[in-house]
Design goal:
Structural class: mainly alpha
Helix content: 25-40%
């Protein structure tokens, strides 16, 4: 039960509470068991408070000072702790379904036997925390810092761990210990772009997990893991795990979905396909180069009239008019949109062709697989190229049908 004197001081207002906390800085206020769904005041000092078995469901505690507070067996469902200082907090046994901890400071937190399904932990700092026997299914841990965290028997089925840091501690936590996710359930978890150097994932369930573009090294451990059926991982990442593949046996690797995006690019932009792409690129540029050549000839070998225009203006008119009636002015044509799509497609195609050639040269020189992934900006470039080509082909098909449907005289 809460201390009635402490509760009364809290109800007396911000000034009374702040003055009392200042006079007794080492006292740990006991507010256990009270209904705190609607905190009476904004951003008061609640550090080291006892909220055990409290009802804080839906409470708005953004940016609050809660370091060292205890929420043992508390109801935190839907509560918002965004940006709050929760360092060394006790969340053992807490019920925090759909609670929001985005960008919260949670270093060295204790989270045992807790329920954090669908919790929002995006960008939170959990470095050095101890998390065990906790359900974090469908939680969002995007870009969270778990460096040096001790994580055991945690369920993260369907959780988002994109860009999560499970590597050595950073400047804020320089002890250099590694994260341990041993014997946790990461089935279907999204670990794309996560940092996993020195992370210990021994015995972890990884079926259908996505580890593409994750950063690993020879210190990352996957020993005693059950067969990771359908787990997505890059060939480069597997090679970086060392000769023993981090503990993944041959049988484990056979059931993985191993991605080699360098080979993927080669299939589309190397060999015969490179020649086809180059011919197509030349064919796209040819009408405009030919037009420029003709206008240059006219400018040098024909008499310049008073109503003449520059070669640049002539080219722009030629483009926006679709090649017809450019002499008469800026006659906008629907085919200009086709030109824009074609330009986007050919720019993306040229960039990906250049990247493919660059990767091939590096592999030939070093004899080693190169780090490259279509997750991130390169994936976006390929997506833009793919769908701009689709739009281009649809527009060409429409124009072809329109052309074939034109009436012609037969007499």
């Amino acid at each position: 039960m809460a201390d009635s004197d402490h509760v009364e001081i809290l109800r007396n207002g911000t000034t009374a509470w702040g003055s009392w906390r200042g006079n007794y800085p080492n006292l740990e206020p006991d507010l256990s068991g009270i209904d705190f769904t609607k905190p009476p005041f904004d951003r008061i000092n609640l550090s080291n408070c006892n909220f055990n078995k409290c009802n804080l469901s839906g409470a708005k505690l953004m940016m609050h000072e809660l370091s060292g507070a205890s929420f043992h067996l508390a109801n935190l469902g839907g509560a918002d702790f965004s940006g709050a200082n929760l360092s060394e907090v006790n969340l053992n046994g807490a019920h925090a379904v759909a609670a929001v901890f985005s960008h919260a400071k949670m270093q060295d937190a204790k989270i045992n036997d807790a329920l954090l399904t669908k919790a929002q932990l995006r960008g939170s700092n959990l470095a050095g925390s101890k998390i065990a026997n906790t359900n974090m299914d469908a939680a969002d841990l995007t870009e969270a810092n778990l460096a040096g965290a001790q994580i055991q028997k945690v369920s993260c089925i369907g959780a988002q761990l994109v860009g999560v840091n499970l590597g050595p501690r950073n400047e804020v936590n320089p002890s250099g210990t590694c994260s341990k996710l041993r014997y946790s359930n990461l089935n279907s978890a999204n670990l794309q772009l996560s940092r996993l150097p020195t992370a210990d994932l021994s015995g972890t369930l990884l079926e259908m997990a996505d580890l593409r573009s994750a950063s690993m090294n020879a210190s990352t451990k996957f020993t005693d893991c059950p067969p990771p059926h359908g787990m997505k991982i890059d060939r480069y990442a597997l090679e970086m795990l060392g000769d023993d593949y981090g503990g993944f046996s041959r049988g484990h690797r056979m059931v993985m979905d191993i991605h080699d995006d360098v080979a993927f690019l080669r299939q589309r932009f190397s060999g015969v396909f490179r020649i086809v792409h180059l011919i197509a690129l030349i064919a796209f540029l040819f009408p405009y180069v030919w037009f420029l050549g003709l206008r240059w000839w006219d400018a040098h070998f024909k008499t310049v009239q008073e109503d003449s225009i520059t070669i640049l203006v002539a080219l722009l008119r030629f483009i926006v008019s679709g090649g017809s009636s450019w002499q008469e002015g800026w006659n906008w044509s629907w085919s200009f949109s086709l030109f824009v799509i074609a330009v986007v497609y050919n720019v993306m195609r040229s960039i990906l062709m250049g990247k493919t050639l660059h990767l091939e040269m590096k592999e030939e020189i070093t004899g080693l697989p190169q780090r490259f992934s279509l997750v991130g900006k390169w994936g976006a470039a390929y997506w833009v190229m793919k769908y701009s080509l689709l739009l281009y082909l649809i527009a060409v098909l429409f124009n072809t049908i329109r052309f074939l449907w034109m009436p012609v005289p037969i007499g």
